[in-house]
Amino acid sequence: MGQISLNQVTKSFGDNQVIPPLDLDINEGEFVVFVGPSGCGKSTLLRLIAGLEDTTSGHISIDGTDATTLPPSKRGLAMVFQSYALYPHMTVRKNIAFPMRMAGLDEATQKAKIDAAAAALNLTDYLDRKPGQLSGGQRQRVAIGRAIVREPSAFLFDEPLSNLDAALRVGMRLEIMELHAKLKTTMVYVTHDQVEAMTMADKIVVLQAGVIEQVGSPLELYHTPRNKFVAGFIGSPKMNLIEGTEAAKHDATTIGIRPEHLTVSKTEGLWKGRVGVAEHLGSDTFIHVHDTGLMEMMTVRITGDIAAKHGDTIYLTPLADQMHRFDAAGLRIT
Amino acid sequence: MGQISLNQVTKSFGDNQVIPPLDLDINEGEFVVFVGPSGCGKSTLLRLIAGLEDTTSGHISIDGTDATTLPPSKRGLAMVFQSYALYPHMTVRKNIAFPMRMAGLDEATQKAKIDAAAAALNLTDYLDRKPGQLSGGQRQRVAIGRAIVREPSAFLFDEPLSNLDAALRVGMRLEIMELHAKLKTTMVYVTHDQVEAMTMADKIVVLQAGVIEQVGSPLELYHTPRNKFVAGFIGSPKMNLIEGTEAAKHDATTIGIRPEHLTVSKTEGLWKGRVGVAEHLGSDTFIHVHDTGLMEMMTVRITGDIAAKHGDTIYLTPLADQMHRFDAAGLRIT
Amino acid sequence: QDQVTTLTIATVNNGDMIRMQGLTADFTDKNPDIALEWVTLEENVLRQNVTTDISTGGGAYDVMTIGTYEVPIWGNNDWLVSLNDGMADDWDAGDLLPAIAGGLTVDGNLYAAPFYGESSMVMYRTDLMEKAGLEMPDAPTWTFIREAAAAMTDRDNEINGICARGKAGWGENMAFLTAMSNSFGARWFDEDWNAQFDTQPWADTLDFYLGMMNESGPNGAANNGFNENLTLFQQGKCGMWIDATVAASFVTGADSTVADSVGFALAPDNGLGPRGNWLWAWSLAIPKSSEKQDAAKKFVSWATSKSYTELVAANEGWANVPPGTRTSLYENQEYLDAAPFAAMTLQSINSADPTNPTVDPVPYTGVQFVAIPEFAGIANQVGQQFSDALAGNQTAAQALAAAQELTVEEIEAAGY
Amino acid sequence: MATAHSRSAARIMIAPAVFVLLVWMLVPLCMTLYFSFADYRPMRGVFEPWIGFDNYARFLTSSSFLSSLFTTLWMVGSILAITITGGVTMALLLDKPMFGQGIVRILVIAPFFVMPTVSALVWKNMFFNVDNGLFSYGYKFFGLEPFDFLSQAPLFSIIIIVAWQWLPFATLILLTAVQSLDSEQLEASEMDGAPAWSRFRFIILPHLSRAITVVILIQTIFLLSIFAEIFVTTNGAFGTRTLTYLVYQRVLESQNIGLGSAGGIVAVILANIIAIFLMRIVGKNLDS
Amino acid sequence: MARAITPQKKIMWTALAWTFGLMMFFPILWTFLTSFKSEATAIADPPVWLFFDWTLENYIDVQARSNYPKALMNSIIIAVGSTVLGIMIAVPAAWAMAFVPGKNTKDILLWMLSTKMLPAVGVLYPLVLLAKWLGVMDSRILLIVVLMLINLPIIVWMLYTYFKEIPGEILEAARMDGAGLKSEILYVLTPMALPGIASTVLLNIILAWNEAFWTILLTTVDAAPLTAFIASFSAPEGLFYAKLSAASMLAIAPILIMGWFSQKQLVRGLTFGAVK
Ligand SMILES: Nc1ncnc2c1ncn2[C@@H]1O[C@H](COP(=O)(O)OP(=O)(O)OP(=O)(O)O)[C@@H](O)[C@H]1O
Ligand SMILES: Nc1ncnc2c1ncn2[C@@H]1O[C@H](COP(=O)(O)OP(=O)(O)OP(=O)(O)O)[C@@H](O)[C@H]1O
Ligand SMILES: [Mg+2]
Ligand SMILES: [Mg+2]
User: Fold this and answer.
1) Pocket mutation for ligand 2, best pick of B17, B42, B188 (most atoms within 8 Å of C-beta)
2) To the nearest whole angstrom, how far is the Cα of A106 from the nearest Cα of chain B?
3) Does residue D9 fall inside a structural domain?
4) Residue D275: pLDDT above 80?
5) Per-residue confidence at A21, pLDDT binned at 50, 70, 90?
6) Which residue, judged by its Cα, is nearest atom 4 of ligand 1?
């Protein structure tokens, strides 16, 4: 249960085609993450799957049956919204019970399932509170609880963590991953957060303007980005992309080298530059290097500390085997 | 100009003493960052300095003169708020001019200063827009511009970047640092963001429940945290804190070891554990290690990739010279 | 030049008053030192405003339009300026109809000058009467009226035999019913101020009224006051209408579709002596609180003078002059020619006796009202009860019981 | 925010409003209170400053008091019921996509601007009038006997008039509230399998509850003092006499200021009981 | 994220909404039409809708009988005056309640609202006596003050709910920028709350315009507004529907038109913080 296929699906709002024909298969039990810049159609795609929007053309099938025209409530999917979309006037218990109440389940079953979900999500103490009295993370958990009790064939998440603060985000991320490990239900997850995408996904779908740029595992995308867009999009700090003669030396229009794949020396190296701001995090140091003649500003990441001061001269050497090459069309040269 | 002293300052809201007696000196030209958990009194402290709250007792002096009872407008400080607090009905130009208008400066001086500030902050093209038509980063810059033109003896910032998205945050962070380098004015900066604190501060003030836990440079705090609280608070991912017999072996109640100071092996090492979730970021991998018998979950950070799967057995060895030891009271043992 | 004195005049918004407003120029031409400000209000609102003004010490108005009910009470309170002297020389007090003037006089002082006077009478459709094969006597009885009404009623053609006031209010249905009750021998109070709604004459009155109205009255009669009935009659929907004599000029006027076939008769009686007709005059009075009493007297003299009558006649025709105040008018052949109802009006007015309105003696004066300050309040409420009975929401007995109870309450509160 | 300086400024700033309202409330109210213990009947020239609680006793025991109280509650209650159900319906309807939404909104809002006197006159004469009113033509058109609204269903008629005036108000507030409902909540409930009625019952209606309490509070304040509509249409006949109207009769028709003042005080007390009751609800709602 | 909607549904909603809208509007429309009929056409059976001889006669008659421009002027002065005065008193009060809330702020607010429940007629005599004593009967200033007092609680409440939505940080920013209390309110708060203030003003103009008890009882000539004007048109000798309609239209048209033009503002203001 939980296999979703999109077949030549398109979506237009009025004359504006947001999703050009698109094919995508999501396998049972997979954790699929949609990433891409704002406005690229991530939410739209998710809502098409949920049935909250009608497709303009094409077919969506869920578990082998055509679901293109099914209403959302009949698709057997559960969705967790960015704003949580909890019912503010109902207690946590009632919120979680709501889908079961709609389905007409008897009280006893409802209670059992609520208790189970609450236990799993550490919500037992809050069952009688209203959402307004909960913290962001707790609200998020309630939203997930409401989704779980339906035993959906797949969960859909639309940027579920983006309203939480950094610390909570890390915690909730782990919780969702553990939930996936436990339930083994298909999850489709939209985010614009690098780290979330990299750490959570079995499969990342990179979208740009409604078009799928690449589909693959996080490390596949990190190590072999199919094009410049994906290369720049995946990884933080961003990959340094160098054009011009230096790239031509490698038979490419553009070469890319990630900040962590540059070695630094005060005395010698391939490229010479001047230290701009150096950010010391204790565990790492990010150095912004100017005046390399290659690109405006190059970023270098060093593990641990380094005594680099504003204005120092510095030499950088790329790890040759970690260099990415792209052609004029921006595609990877292998 | 820009020397601020707090002398036995306390603040209570009703019966709730938020700041117990507190002493703090901020030197001229320093970049001081307040960090601490939510609700610890960072904002309150800043607002006491600004004069937006009355002290319950104690004295605040600015540049050597007692400012305890001065109204905010008379303290010669400028503040940049988390929500930017721009005047939405005024153009950028008017926003920036507002403090000068209040001070009764003549038109020509106003204009000159506005132009200078706009040039410095890259706002020249937006002077006639209203704040509603600006992006988050631009708004932030206007707020700073409004602060600059007053030529205050110190700038106060209350989480100025927390409403921006990750990418912008990095950019603005750099801009504020450059501004400080240029103006050399005292800056007091509140944040809950690790990275901001570590990268921006000359001096970090770590607060907990209104009490100053440690004051020092970022690397001082990273390398020699004065107590367990600071040790756990500074650094990301968090330091692993181990109690019990393993700590006793080192003549301490608690020992701490940062995730980046653990080496990993599949075959041998000091401590043995089982891999839980492994987060592959490409550049780094965070491994959550369970069942070490030392603490519930230990975090390890490895540069680059490692092929660690859920359930694998793993061995960890701490770098001995990077270990921190704390006594029963939680204080560092040196 | 001289300072101009501005008079503020409160008037009711009926046709004669509005006509007077239109003729203001005549007065101001003659009295260039006086300017007029009109406050024209609907009757109920007017009463509310002038009453509040006068009872709080006033001063807002220099001339007030008030009725026969208020004049004796206010005169008694010494709130009004006596018109016995100071009026224009040619303002002939002796020419006023004695019945009307009597109602406006307290202790020998005339406290208001009548602008127009009225009684009530029967107006009927001669054509319908003929069709019904009946003939209206000059002085009909209630029994005849009821029978004639039944005979004239033709609901299919929206013709109702009888139209009469049903709308609640002391100046609406209670004016009609109180006058009618007189002819049935009923009274409001006995000589010891005991309310009399529990007596047989009142029961008879109300039963008769309700019976007749239900048989032959229009639908929704409980909401019909003077205005509504006038419209109905003008539209040809009433066989008979018993109401104020001033209506005569309207039902025979241009707005009426049945102007050519209207006859007049005295208000009915029941063989006991009194007829069911009332006596009323809209009059102009000057409150003592006015600071411009001399100018006000000039105005009142003008507005109620014979020459004003002639002025209206010259402008609007004799049929439209304000009726019912002066003997001389009813001796004027031109008027008698223009107004076929004149004789009947005069006869009606003269036959009303405010001091002995009904069969048994009463401690009060007034035909269709009781000239005590509490009356308006009480009668409004009693009127609501009767109106409710007419609407079929309660029986006559219930209405009378309620009326009795609240009258007793109020009259006790008033300290009788 | 709150420094000693700003707090003292606040006291000065709020003072004028509190002062004028206090004067407005206390001076006339004290005079009314004073009159209510007096036998004050200017028409008779009677003024006796102290007669104890006679006026109160008389007012409260009079046959009209209870019925007018009941009429008041019934009238206010029905109007609230109509405007709120109608308002919710209209709000939901106006929230739907349609052509000319702006114009429809203008049409719906219009009655709110009409003077009570005017609307009472218009309804009474041009709609309810049994001979010439439009409704009667309607009845006749269908071959029915015209219905005399104002005497047969007087309270209902007044309720219609007032509800017509206040329905726009309720609609507008509720419309804004409907529009503020987070669409994700509706979508979530849809995903949860809730059909349209359940979505209304469990999501929309609770969301509107705050707006509804505000509508109730504001309308009650205004409805308790309805006057013109009764004055113009029935003059208090046919059981349409509310407490306000009863006081009016005592003061202006009977010219018994003492009794009327006692009635006024009673009305103030009753209104405040209702007010406190409502404020409790709304106050709670204002907090959340 | 409104979802796409089928045209059929849209047409259905349109039809339904227009039906309701026209029903609500009908009494006004009918009054409007009647005001252009002759008296006979006005009560014609069956009713005449659009095809009759349109005439301005009723308006001319009404005009001739009373001083409409003066009443209109008075209405405008009284409605606007009382609102402006009210705003001037309410803005500082609302500022204090919204930004320096104390323990009893809410109680004060609710107390203010409860003064609105005072039945007017109960205090009629005291007020008339007071007005007489002060010698201000039939003056616009009296009505301005009385209507201001009647509506002040509503004004304060509305402004309070508006101000509460303005982040206090902005006012603090102004303070940091060297603004005193007066500058803070004048240059920062007021312009920011302008939409809210505007809608408060609009609503109160409507309420003051339509107030029909005090405006009639406390005026005679000089200050009589449109409510008094209309009080002279109900039913003088016969049911003159057409004239009544014309007078009615004259009385409500100004405020109706103002209301329509400012509809959007008004809707915002009417919400009284009911909607967050
Ligand atoms: N209901 C709608 N009507 C018209 N256009 C829409 C609608 N919903 C979305 N769009 C457009 O479709 C495009 C894709 O929107 P979508 O919300 O899917 O982006 P997204 O990838 O989720 O962006 P974000 O990261 O900002 O959430 C955008 O250009 C948006 O403007
Ligand atoms: N006006 C106030 N009245 C009462 N308590 C207050 C007030 N302002 C702050 N507090 C309390 O004072 C404590 C410190 O608040 P403060 O806002 O200074 O924390 P903070 O460190 O800035 O937190 P955060 O990181 O969440 O902004 C908190 O417990 C808070 O509840
Ligand atoms: Mg999205
Ligand atoms: Mg804070």
Assistant:
1) B42
2) 37
3) no
4) no
5) very high
6) A13
Q: Is D85 on the interface with C (CB under 8 A)?
A: no
Question: Cβ separation of E117 and D21 shorter than 8 Å?
Answer: no
B199 to chain A, any CB pair closer than 8 A? The answer is: yes
Contacts of E64 in chain C (CB under 8 A): 22
DSSP codes joined into one string, B12-48: EETTEEEEEEEEEEE-TT-EEEEE-STTSSHHHHHHH
**B77 min Cα distance to partner chain E (Å):** 7
For chain D, what is the domain count? Answer: 1
Three-class DSSP category at E8: helix
The residue assigned the tokens 């009059």 is C283
Domain span(s) for CATH 1.10.3720.10 in chain E: 66-234
Closest chain B C-alpha to E160 CA, distance in angstroms: 19
Task: Identify any residues that bridge with A10 across adjacent strands, giving them in sequence order.
Answer: A57
pLDDT in tens, D37-72: 998 888 887 888 888 888 899 889 887 899 999 999
The total of other beta-carbon atoms located within 10 Å of residue A64's CB is 8
Q: What is the nearest CA distance from A144 to chain E, expressed in angstroms?
A: 22
CA of B7 to the centre of ligand 4 (A): 22
Opening angle at CA A273, ends A270 and A275, nearest 5: 135
Q: Is the CB of B245 under 6 A from ligand 2?
A: no
The closest of A128, A150, A149 to A138, measured between CA atoms, is A128
Q: Note the Cα D97 to chain centre separation in Å.
A: 32
Residue nearest to atom 3 of ligand 1 (CA): A13
Separation between Cα atoms, residue A143 and residue A123, nearest integer Å: 11
Q: Kindly report the number of other CB atoms within 10 A of residue E9's CB atom.
A: 12
> What angle do the packed helices E7-34 and E241-261 form, to 10 degrees?
130
State the pTM of this model.
0.84
Q: In CATH, what number is assigned to the domain containing residue D64?
A: 1.10.3720.10
d(CA B29, CA B27): 6
**Which of D180, D189, D192 should we substitute to test contact with A (largest number of A Cβ atoms within 10 Å)?**
D192
Instruction: Check pocket membership of A13 for ligand 1, CB cut-off 6 A.
Output: yes
Take atom 19 of ligand 2 and give the residue whose Cα is closest. B39
Evaluate whether D203 touches D186 at the Cβ level (below 8 Å).
yes
Q: Which parts of C230-293 are beta strand (E)?
A: 238-244, 262-266, 279-285
- Cα(B51)–Cα(A167) distance, rounded to whole angstroms? 31
CB A41 less than 6 A from any atom of ligand 1: yes
Cα E135 to Cα A213, E131, E138, distances in angstroms = 84, 6, 9
Confidence class of residue D256 from pLDDT cuts 50, 70 and 90?
Answer: confident
Q: Which domains does chain B have, with CATH numbers?
A: 4-230 (3.40.50.300), 237-326 (2.40.50.140)
What digits encode the pLDDT tens for the residues C318-364? 988 998 899 999 999 999 998 888 988 999 999 888 888 888 899 98
Of D244, D88, D87, the closest CA to residue D158 belongs to D244
- Taking only residues 108 to 147 of chain B, the set having a beta carbon closer than 8 angstroms to any beta carbon of chain E reads 146
Across the interface, whether the CB atoms of E187 and B98 are under 8 A apart is answered yes
Three-class SS of residue C349? Answer: helix
Whether chain B has a CB inside 8 Å of the CB on D7: the answer is no
Helix or strand (DSSP H, E) at B143: helix B136-148
**Topology (CATH level 3) of domain E66-234:** MetI-like fold (1.10.3720)
Q: Is the ipTM of this complex over 0.85?
A: no
- For E112-139, give one letter per residue: b (16+ CB within 10 A) or e: bbbbbbbbbbbbbbbbbbbbbeeebbbb
Torsion angle (degrees, nearest 10) of CA B115, B118, B122, B123: -110
Q: Which residues of D touch B53 (CB under 8 A)?
A: 1-3
B contact residues 71-110, partner D, Cβ 8 Å cutoff: 71
